[in-house]
Amino acid sequence: xxxxxxxxxxxxxxxxxxxxxxxxxxxKATDAVARQPEASNKIxxxxxxxxxxxxxxxxxxxxxxxxxxxxx
Amino acid sequence: xxxxxxxxxxxxxxxxxIPVNIxxxxxxxxxxxxxxxxxxxxxxxxxxxxxxxxxxxxLHHISKRQLIAETIVxxxxxxxxxxxxxxxxxxxxxxxxxxxxxxxxxxxxVVGLVPPTMxxxxxxxxxxxxxxxxxxxxxxxxxTGGWLKAFTEPVWIVTPMNILELGIRxxxxxxxxxxxxLGATVIMELIKMAVPMFIPALxxxxxxxxxxxxxxxxxxxxxxLYIKEATE
Lengths: 72, 232
Description:
In chain A, 85% of the residues lie in helices and 0% in strands. Chain A is mostly helical. In chain A, helix 1 (3-11) runs antiparallel to helix 3 and helix 2 (15-35) runs antiparallel to helix 3.
């Protein structure tokens, strides 16, 4: 039973947080655009920035998993 | 070869591009890394572009080349204009240079080469440059005593957190950029192995172009935000 593989699998769980967070952010962004369509450019820029920042924590999990598998 | 072997080759390969066999020093100490070589290529591309765009500049009746050059500069400066604050506005050109470097080096993956930012050394160097700039801007604005006092700024209880942020900020900047480029490159390799026909071009639109440019913008956005926060 190779514990490295189990560790890498657990590290991949960080994607859950990013998925939920970005989903909630997108929901609020669509609400805001529906409420005021002329502000949609600013809202889209803010949404993209927020998604890129929230994605970072999921990427940390990916880096940890890859390092576990490929660094001996 | 199988997917596992390809990934192994991609992630653990020896990255020497030009071996330089000078006598002293440990074995292979002066070898030129592949990321350094590609960075030289990026520098060359920007250098030639700048020379081409700024030839024969005039004050009135400007040529079309000069118009393009002026539009590029004005638009790029407008992109970061509000982010740096009033004191940080002197660092606009440095921030734009970093943005262009990271953007072009993330886009190198489109032609099939390994991007320089996939090397951890490059991203750590960029993050270290950012944190030195942030702290130097803070010291220049507030003086050394004021900068030290700024660690206790909102409430005195958060001082350990502020001291930790000196290390956490460059770490998160570096890891975010490195992880995104690494993930994009790995997924593009897997797609190229699975479906070599039309899908890699479409997927490259998202992974290389969109993701690469957004990550470059996020890097300089966060650096500018920290500079503005340190010089307020």
